[in-house]
Amino acid sequence: MNYPGYTLVRREDCPEQHGVLTVLKHDVSGAAVLLVENEDTNKAFGIGFGTFPSDDTGVFHILEHSVLAGSEKYPVTSPFLQLLKSSMASFLNAMTFPDKTVYPFATPNETDFRNLMDVYLNAVFCPLAMVDKAVFEQEGWHRDADGTVSGVVYNEMQGALASPDAQLQNALERAMFPDTAYGFVSGGDPASIPALTYEKYQRVYRRHYSADNCCITLYGKMDMAEKLAFLDEHYLSRMPKGTSRPRLTVQDQQNGVRVHIPYYTENPEPDQVQCALAWYTGAFADRERQLGVEILLDALLGTNQSPLKAALLEQKLGADIDIGFDDSTLQPTLELVLRGATAETAPKFAAGVKQAVTDLLAGGIPEELLLASLNAMEFASLERPGSLPDGVLDAIYAATGWLHTGDPALLLHTDKLFASLREKLSTGWFNDLLKDLLLAEPVQVIQTPALPKKDEEDAAPARTDGKLVLDHPLTAADLGEGKKQTPGSKELLAGAELLHHPSAGNTYLYLYYDLGGMAPEDMSCLHLLTDVMDELDTEKHTAQELNTLRNTWLGSSGEWMDCWTGRQEGRPCHAKLIVGMSMLERSLDSPPAIVAAMPIALLVSSADSFSRLA
Question: Looking at the whole model, is its pTM more than 0.90?
Answer without folding.
Answer: no
